[in-house]
């Protein structure tokens, strides 16, 4: 029995050792192959990056066999994408030409319809980076995909392909755009030259609440003053997040009536929105709002009282003196809040 | 001009080498900040072009270490990602001489380097 165990152990060890050598050899071959590909693709990409303007762009003969290898195609495709992300100007045009000469757009087309989500996502991203305009329709179809990664890549790619016109996906999307993806989209738009937006009025009436919030952010970021009345209307929307964004947007396109508009909704707002209103009021520095704010001190919770007092102090540098004149300024909790504010101001001055 | 390129991406590194050699510069390549420091001490280049995001020693750390040791003897251009204004300011604070936001045009880089070459003469 012991002898049998010994033979089994020896046999297993030999098999494991052989397997180890085999896989190590395979890994070495793979590394060598990738090292050759690395060199060849770098040379090819560099040739296309630095080619003279008048030269006809064509593939060297030795690449024709290699380009049939699907693994090499994926490898060089990623290399070209990296190069396009890092270089600009004429270089990008040449790299796009290389992408087309290697017929990598056909792989991209195939992958945009792939059942595997990560391949589909990558393909759509590549469409945007390589600016493959003939893929616009496929990209647009995916802007309302149930998979959020595919959806955001398609939305970003559509903006890259068609600029501000790409925002047409806001007309059709049923899935919400998360806060993070709204930032991603706004960052993408930042690289474009501002132009006249088409569709704002429609998007502000969208059944998709995140579309309304995103549109309000567009109004704020691009200072679209003509939509002031529409934004004011949204201060009365039943959704508190839309109202919150409307408050923030109004502050970016404000006029003399804005403080009044914001104070008119203050009483019935959520605590979060009340704090947002106070923050905006402190930046307007409108003296006429101080009596109203002092009045509010009588009815609000201690948490909000602190914010209100700080707002008053920011609106008027003599704000603390005004606060000390109000009837209950010397009884808790107001006296404590005022004292704390004084200490904070003294600390800031130091 | 003796130029050291510190960039962890193989493709970008080789593209920069290709372009700089075309402009008749003497080019040394470093695959990360640590490698760059070693080669700088060996060769003392006139100019260092460095990426910000690199393993072991970041581009910002590299800028600080070079300026601490070589002051104005070595000029530094940092390659940053578009929109990283805070990183650019930090690099200038550490002593960087110029920056180029990615994506960048190799021709623009070439022109900027020529400016340094003229100043050196």
TrEMBL record, chain A:
<keyword id="KW-0472">Membrane</keyword>
<feature type="transmembrane region" description="Helical">
    <location>
        <begin position="6"/>
        <end position="26"/>
    </location>
</feature>
<keyword id="KW-1133">Transmembrane helix</keyword>
<keyword id="KW-0812">Transmembrane</keyword>
<protein>
    <recommendedName>
        <fullName>HEAT repeat-containing protein</fullName>
    </recommendedName>
</protein>
<dbReference type="InterPro" id="IPR016024">
    <property type="entry name" value="ARM-type_fold"/>
</dbReference>
<dbReference type="InterPro" id="IPR011989">
    <property type="entry name" value="ARM-like"/>
</dbReference>
TrEMBL record, chain B:
<dbReference type="InterPro" id="IPR001789">
    <property type="entry name" value="Sig_transdc_resp-reg_receiver"/>
</dbReference>
<protein>
    <submittedName>
        <fullName>DNA-binding response OmpR family regulator</fullName>
    </submittedName>
</protein>
<dbReference type="GO" id="GO:0003677">
    <property type="term" value="F:DNA binding"/>
</dbReference>
<keyword id="KW-0805">Transcription regulation</keyword>
<feature type="modified residue" description="4-aspartylphosphate">
    <location>
        <position position="51"/>
    </location>
</feature>
<keyword id="KW-0238">DNA-binding</keyword>
<keyword id="KW-0597">Phosphoprotein</keyword>
<dbReference type="InterPro" id="IPR011006">
    <property type="entry name" value="CheY-like_superfamily"/>
</dbReference>
<feature type="domain" description="Response regulatory">
    <location>
        <begin position="2"/>
        <end position="117"/>
    </location>
</feature>
<keyword id="KW-0902">Two-component regulatory system</keyword>
<dbReference type="Pfam" id="PF00072">
    <property type="entry name" value="Response_reg"/>
</dbReference>
<dbReference type="InterPro" id="IPR039420">
    <property type="entry name" value="WalR-like"/>
</dbReference>
<keyword id="KW-0804">Transcription</keyword>
